[in-house]
Design brief:
By secondary structure, the protein is α+β, with helices and mostly antiparallel strands. It contains 6 helices and 14 strands. It folds into 2 domains: 80 residues, 2-Layer Sandwich (Phosphorylase Kinase, domain 1); 136 residues, D-amino Acid Aminotransferase, Chain A, domain 1 (2-Layer Sandwich), CATH 3.30.470.20. 31% of the residues lie in helices and 35% in strands. Helix 1 runs parallel beside helix 6. The longest helix is centred in the last third of the chain and has 24 residues. It is globular and about 50 Å long. The protein starts with a strand and ends with a helix. Keywords: ATP-binding, Ligase, Nucleotide-binding, Purine biosynthesis.
Amino acid sequence: MKKFEMLYEGKAKRVFRTDESDRYVVEYKDDATAFDGTKKGQIAGKAVVNNKISGILFSLLHQHHIPTHFIEVLSDTEQLVKAVEIIPLEVIVRNVAAGSFSKRLGVEEGILFEKPVLEFSYKNDAFHDPLVNDDHIRAMGLASEEEVRQIKEWALRINDVLQAFFLEKGLKLIDFKLEFGRFEGQVILADEISPDTCRLWDVKTNEKMDKDRFRRDLGKVEETYQEVLRRLV
């Protein structure tokens, strides 16, 4: 397999075409952004950590028969993935009140929900990724009703698997963001699962073990990312 020209560069990754039409190479970056891109920086070693963690978690999901774009880790910072057509929705699964949910609705951080809360946002930087509901999604033609149903089902199953796994590692899965894509007529998980996309708290201390350390200038960002990887390995 040969890696060809770059197709896309996002905030945290680059995507490259390969000599196989149904395969891409994803390259992780150390770049970090927050608050809709208004805060920018770098987290040393983040590319390596997030690549490895995503590989571990995608492999775990495969064991639970949840389809993803992941094929294999190629190098410290690269993965081989299926060439999905990304559905322009971000899916947020919340188990505990935190972050934008608490700020937006005035709910105290740390309150445990009886059932997970699912939110959708329209993946569009120009409009700042606004929240949307099923009716918006249908009206804008972003995804079919069946695709939305499947996304919700996968998201909740992924939450169950990840919650249990992280708990074994001394981490509480507070909330996380997912992206899905179309591949050979099927909706599958894409993007990444890492401390960039998950809000993780230590089980004993509630210490933040994710990108909130960068967002909120809490310090020890690189060390925390490495600690999450150490626990998962």
